[in-house]
Design a protein that fits this description.
Layout: E1 4-8, E2 12-16, E3 30-34, H1 36-46, E4 50-57, H2 61-72, E5 80-82, E6 88-93, E7 102-106, H3 123-129, E8 132-136, H4 137-140, H5 144-159, E9 163-167, H6 178-192, E10 195-197, H7 200-206, H8 216-231, E11 235-243, E12 249-257, E13 260-263, E14 267-269, H9 277-290, H10 295-309, H11 321-328
Parallel strand pairs: 1-4, 1-8, 2-6, 4-5, 8-9, 9-10, 10-11
Antiparallel strand pairs: 2-3, 6-7, 11-12, 12-13, 12-14
Helix pairs in contact: 1-9, 3-5, 5-6, 7-8, 9-10, 10-11
Length: about 325
Amino acid sequence: MRKQIVAFGEVMMRLQVPGYELLAQANALQYSFSGTGVNVASAMTKLGHDGFLVSKLPNNPLGDAAIAFLQRLGINRNYITRGGKYLGLYFLENGFGQRSSRVTYTNRLESSFNTASYSDYDLNQIAKQADVIHFCGITLAMTDDVRETMKILAKKVKENGGLVCFDCNYRPSLWEGGYSKAKPHYEDMLALADIVMMNEKDAMYVLGMETEGTSREAQLKDLIPKVAKQYNIQTVAGTHRAINSDNSHSLRGYLFTNGEFHFSENTSFSVYDRIGAGDAYTSGILHGVITDFSPEKTVLFAQTAGMLACTIVGDTPMSTEAEILSAMAGAIDDIKR
C-alpha cells in the first residue's frame, strides 16, 4: 500500500564534533543535512512509500549541497522552493555516560525556510497529493509565517481527505514565551491532527492538564485519553526513554487508539547516535497505521525502528521494513552475507 507521505519542515546543516569531544576541544567538524521533515520523509521512503519534503532552501551552493543530499536519500523534491541566502545550522556534541549530548542552534530565524510565507508553496497541489502530512512542534516554534503555513496546509490536507500527523516535540529553548506562548498554537494543531506523537509531559506542561497520577505510566493512562477525546484525535503514540548507568538506553513505546492502550516491552540497547530516533519511531507508527498493522504490531515496529536508528550515524533513519521486521523477530546476525 504505497502512499504519498509529505513532511513540512526545515532542512538544517548538522555540524558534528568527532567522537566525544566538546566543541571547545575540536578542530574539525563533520557536516550533513537533516531536520525532522527530512528524517520522516526519508524514513517513509525506506519503508516503501513516496516521501516528499515541503521546504525552502537558499539559492546558492549551500542549497545545492542540501538538494544533492536529499536526492541521495530518495526524497522527492517537487515541493522544495529556492530563495534567500541562509540555512539553519546546529552543532552536535555527543554525550557520554552522565554527560548529555548537546545541540547548539544558530542562524535559524534568518534561514530561507523560516523567512518564507505560505505564498512560497503551492499548497493546493500539495494537499491534493498528500495521503499523509507530517508536522513538528519544533517547526511550530519558529515564526508566525511558518505557523500560519502549517495551519493552512493542515486544513487543506484534511479537506482533501488526507491524514494529518503532528509531533508535539516541545523544545523549551525555542519558545521565548514558554508554555503560555506555545499552548494556543499546539491546541490549533491538535484540533487538526489525526495522529499525534506526545506523552504525559506534553499534556501536563504544554496543555496545562492536571492529573492525580504519581508515576509516569499512571499519568499517561489518565491524560492521553482525555487529550484524544478533547481534540478528537484518532491515534496518539509516544515513548518513555531512560538512560542507564552503562550508557545504554531503555525504550518503551505506547499507542492509544480506539479507546485502548497498547505497549511494547521495555527494551535496553546500545546507542551509537541517538539523534533522529524519535523520528524513526514516528515513521514506524505512520507506516503501521497506513498499512493496517495491528496496534500491537505497530507499536513494536515503531519501537524497533527507533532502536535501529540509534545504531546508525546521522539523524536520518535508514532501515527498511524487512530489516525492522527481522530485528523484531530477533534475527540478528554477526555478519549478513
